[in-house]
Amino acid sequence: MSINSHQPDSLKEKLIAKDTITRAASNLKKIQSQTFDRDIRILNVCGGHERTISDAGLRSLLPEQLKLIPGPGCPICVCPAETINHAISLSNNKHNIVACFGDMINVPANNKKSEVQSLKEAKASGNNIAAVSSPAEVIKLALANSDKTIIFFVAGFETTMAPIAAMLDQINHSSINNVKFLISGKKTWPIVSSLLNNNDHNLDGIIAPGHVATIMGEDEWKFIPAEFKVASAISGFTIDSMLSSIHAILSQIKNKSPSLENHYQETVTHQGNPTAQKLIKKYFNTGDSMWRGIGNIKNSGFTLKSEYQHINAELLIENLTQKTHKSDTPSGCDCPKVTMGQLTPTDCILFNKACTPSNPIGACMVSDEGACQIWWHTLPMQNNQCIST
After folding, report:
1. What does the radius of gyration of the chain's CA atoms come to, in whole angstroms?
2. Would the CA dihedral through 186, 191, 193, 194 be positive or negative?
């Protein structure tokens, strides 16, 4: 549908919305008309994709044998409990203010019952902890508290590490000298590669993360069909884009021709955002990294480069322990299996019983990108809600 550039914005928006609904309905009808002789399992990497799927009740509209599996796309869900304990330890110093993105404050560290379990509990006991929504808020915090050391506890994927690198560049060219960083940044493609290297994964398709691909580029995800012969598509966060990606993956499976299709072309290019990538490379190295409940994943973590170790908050911790293989999850919690697409949230015996958003046992129940919290909030709609048109 062509849109005259002289039409009012409101009319353009109505026409675009109508066109989007038409495409979504067409792709949904195509998907619904397909028959399968077995279950088809498609994993969506991004927590944002899982929210789109669940909020729309999309699973209830698709063929029963088409299984959409939530995956590892929640950065605070995979932050090691040991790193959370480092943040708690740093907050015990009255001269420090620990800042973190909002959800992280509630993540349990799986400590003994007699010990502080989360940054929220540390805050309740009087420690200086601030929940923030952006690096800019941390800058303001530092300027307003020049007599304190601001510890910025960062957990995030490439989409978070790019603005953190930009913040570092800003600080590096300013007089601000009271901010240090506790980094738990992760790269997404290595966890997907690790997942697919497991011969028991039983996945037929991968919906690659649109926001990460916006930063790092479409080409970073070509390993999925090239190396593992698995169908794949990069999706945006609308129902239209999601259904388009699912239909593309099903076509690849039917034709036995796995490839990578970009269904988020409005933001994702082959090479990604070179400015963001340059900033990330300027301040961070990549190396092996522990993922909560999963273990060590090669070349999957961001660490500050040697020339920026003076702002590494870990160096402030007395008797700093190296990351170990200590269990990050309590008995009965299946968050690691949910994260790796081996179970769905409702398969966990704790889900919606001992573990709820008001009393999270596992990290997946905390974040709005965590599969368990998303499923908990949309549970009444999982089998009933339709796409609103």
Report:
1. 22
2. positive
Question: Which of the four pLDDT bands, split at 50, 70 and 90, describes residue 285?
Answer: very high
- Compute the distance between CA of residue 166 and CA of residue 162 in angstroms, rounded to an integer: 6
Mean pLDDT of the chain: 91
Give the sheet arrangement for strand 149-156, strand by strand.
129-132, 96-101, 149-156, 179-186, 295-304, 284-291
Residue 59 pLDDT > 60, yes or no?
Answer: yes
Could you give all domains of the chain from N- to C-terminal order, each with its CATH number?
12-331 (3.40.50.11740), 335-381 (no CATH)
For residue 330 the two structure tokens come to: 């309590």
For 132-191, write each residue's pLDDT tens digit: 999 999 999 999 999 999 999 999 999 999 999 999 999 999 999 999 999 999 999 999
Contact 183, 323 (CB under 8 A): no
Cα→Cα distances 101→119, 155, 168, 192, Å = 11, 8, 17, 24
pLDDT at 4: 41
Rounded-to-10 torsion of CA 345, 57, 198, 330: -10
Composition of the chain by helix, strand, coil, percent to 5: 45, 20, 35
Helix, coil or strand: residue 197:
helix
Q: Is the pLDDT of residue 16 over 60?
A: no
- CA 333 – CA 360 distance, rounded (Å): 10
Output the CA–CA distances (angstroms, integers) from residue 64 to 67, 159, 383, in the order listed. 7, 33, 11
**Contact assessment for residue 216 and residue 12, using Cβ atoms and an 8 Å cutoff:** no
Contacts of 79 by beta carbon, 8 Å cutoff, 6+ apart: 104, 107, 155, 184, 292, 363
What is the amino acid identity at position 102? Answer: G
Contact 207, 249 (CB under 8 A): yes
Whole-angstrom distance, CA of residue 152 vs CA of residue 181: 5
Q: Is the per-residue pLDDT at 382 higher than 60? A: no
